Amino acid sequence: MKRSILGLMYLIQGMRNAGIAVDSRLASLGIKAEALDPSSVIHPDLELDILNVIGKGVKPEVGLFIGQHYALAGYGPLLMLLVTCNTIKAALESGIRFQGLTHLYGSLGMKYLEHHVALIYHPSDLTTEMGLLRAQCEISGTYKFILDIYKMMGLSAPFIRVELPFEVPQKIETLHQYQKYYGTDLYFGADQAGFQLNLDVLGVKIPSADPITFRIYEAKCIAEIERLNSEEDELNVLIQRVQNYLELQQGVIPSMAETAHALNLPERTLRYQLQQLNTSYKEIREQLIKHKALRLIEYKEYSIEVIAELLGYSEPAAFNHAFKRWFGQSPRRYGK
To answer: 232 pLDDT exceeds 60?
Structure first.
């Protein structure tokens, strides 16, 4: 199953702000952060390969700072869904239901206690340095997400008890950084991350609740989850690798030489091996652009001019011409 690229993009942004030379590390993979397509999805194996390069040598504790730079803006339909829920309980349940659209790599759930409810997050890996770094980032980012959602809904943030699946920091300065961010009701050594709220919070009405808008964005979230969960075509591994790499980009799609470099293959070898599979870089590239064009038009969030730019066309007319060649009608007519 592929997932949203948001987690990777926010991680890159946070690492930049932490003073880590992430752009030079990305360049070694043939990737430019500014060219990443926020609407794209990424295969977990490719994402892990990228993380192992950009996160090498970064202490897990830095994730506390990195996660604070995760933002709501990129969540589109999911964000609108949450702020139009009727109650906080409904918003939490919707967030868990559609967690596949967030930055999270682990799993999110809810646990009811006698007087409290806990939003539980199970990290996918706490045994490696990279796993710990990712967990720190995602837990920190989730806490910020909760506070930002409350602020956006016009509500006062509730009192939250925080439990972390990490050892108590040895340095007192580091411990103070955790307490400054999460508050003093903070506990280490838990089996998973937990954000505990008073049960009374669940019934709080959301000021921006709107049943009609909620249903509209619920349908969009369902469609996006289905896209992420859809089975990948049974393609040759090399073709899939090329597709996965090109899927990340927006604007000017990388050249064959750049793609070969990113895949650690000589360009001639890539060309020859694709020929043996009865395809070519040009065919794979065009199929990807066609797929992205349909997805962006059906999303109904961008103008034709913006879509043309996102797909790397210098003029909307060139995009219109290509679209008519592919589908027999103009993109504007198709989108109606």
So the answer is: no
